[in-house]
Specification:
About 5% of the residues have low confidence. This protein has 211 residues and is α/β, with parallel strands linked by helices. It has a seven-stranded mixed β-sheet, sandwiched between helices. The protein is globular, with a radius of gyration of 18 Å. The chain is 47% helix and 16% strand. Helix 4 packs parallel to helix 6 and helix 5 packs across helix 7.
């Protein structure tokens, strides 16, 4: 076998071993962190829930706005999500993801980054381009990434994959797409496993920089 082929074989073996170790850590309840990406109605939330199904107690961090009579379609979506969660799971509706992760004593499921980022962009004044909104946004994101990186419980997060479409025609659309893409990349860098769900099919992504 040539030197090049031996190098490729060693690299492939290392990748497989690293992936197996990550899956074993997660399966045994150790500090596994999994990012589940996907498009709308791709099945990403269902897959995330299955990853934590064996745990009797899970903290479900719902990042969207609470349902109201003013938006029956959103209320129906929320109700459908709640109905399929196990009885032992506790739902917490919050935008303080960093605080919730730092105080968690049970496995956590975050669903999802897209709705959370929309709320954060509104809070920091991004939609109106208020003075200093970029710095306030950076502070929110850095705080969350630090909480994710240091989390002491198994945690699964769901996020939208928004980088495959056309360039949005509005400032707000471009900001949302760019910031969410950057957040996904940063969280992925501190995750044990990253998967992409397409039409209900789960694709495991390779390590950092294609390793």
């Amino acid at each position: 076998m040539s030197t090049h082929l031996r190098r490729v074989a060693r690299l492939a073996a290392a990748r497989l071993d690293a992936g197996a170790r990550a899956l074993r850590r997660f399966a045994h309840g150790q500090n596994g962190k999994v990012l589940v990406l996907g498009g709308v109605r791709s099945g990403k939330s269902r897959h995330a829930e299955r990853l934590l199904a064996r745990h009797p107690h899970v903290v479900y961090l719902a990042t969207g706005l609470p349902p109201s009579d003013d938006d029956p379609e959103w209320a129906a979506r929320v109700a459908a999500h709640r109905a399929r969660r196990p009885a032992g799971w506790r739902t917490v509706e919050t935008a303080d993801l960093a605080g919730a992760l730092r105080t968690a004593s049970a496995p956590v499921l975050i669903d999802c980054f897209g709705t959370w980022l929309s709320r954060v962009l509104g809070e920091v004044g991004a939609w109106d381009q208020a003075d200093g909104w970029q710095q306030r946004l950076d502070e929110h994101l850095l705080d969350f990434v630090d909480a994710w990186r240091t989390a002491r419980v198994p945690v699964v997060a769901v996020s939208n994959e928004v980088g495959s479409g056309v360039v949005p025609g509005t400032f707000s659309g471009r900001v949302f797409r760019d910031v969410l893409g950057a957040l996904n990349s940063e969280v992925a860098a501190h995750s044990d496993q990253v998967v992409l769900v397409v039409a209900g099919r789960v694709l495991e992504l390779s390590g950092k920089d294609g390793q």
